[in-house]
Amino acid sequence: MNRKMNSGAVRSQTGFSLLELMIAVVILAIGLMAAASMQGTALRSDAFAYRNTTATAISQQVMDDLLSVPIMYSQPPSGWYAFFTAAVNNASYTRFPPFNGPASAPVPQYTVPNVGTFTATYTIEPNTPTTNISRITVQILISTATGTRPLPFVLVGHREIPSTSL
């Protein structure tokens, strides 16, 4: 009877073998490596999102500036009517002066620390998609230490133009 008690007591007190411990450490190491690689991916995704959010805000500002100008306002050398009815291809954007008061300083580029320099360009296609409508396309270029390239999206807006100059 004592023999049965002793063998049962020994079995219940056995611990992990060295092999089981090594397998547990390998599984833990794989999990930690996966978590570390997710940190790098998260940082890259965050930088990508920040760059695209900045570019979107700049392109929206450019489009808002172009669409908010009253046609009667005669700022460009030949007036806004001529501006929106002539074809313009990839013109570098400079912020327009306010409608009243002195002209503001031009803003041809926006520099964001640790991201790059953003440059807005726009294209105007008169009578597109139909008569008396001009299509305005805004493209953002980014300049970094590795070079200048366009960002992979454009903003498109339309402006109604009266059939005669006001």
**Rg (C-alpha, Å):** 32 Å
Number of helices: 3
**End-to-end Cα distance:** 114 Å
Unreliable sequence segments: 98-106
Mean pLDDT: 80
Estimate the strand proportion: 25-35%
The profile of the biggest β sheet is: 5 strands, antiparallel
List the domain count as a whole number. 1
Features:
single chain; 166 residues; alpha+beta; five-stranded antiparallel β-sheet; 3 helices; rod-shaped
What would you say this structure looks like, in words?
The chain is an alpha+beta fold and 166 residues long. Helices cover 41% and strands 27% of the residues. The chain has one domain. It has helices at 2-12, 18-68, 80-85; strands at residues 88-92, 109-112, 116-125, 133-144, 147-160. The longest helix has 51 residues, at 18-68. The N and C termini lie far apart (114 Å).
Break the fold down into its secondary structure elements and pairings:
Layout: H1 2-12, H2 18-68, H3 80-85, E1 88-92, E2 109-112, E3 116-125, E4 133-144, E5 147-160
Antiparallel strand pairs: 1-3, 2-3, 3-4, 4-5
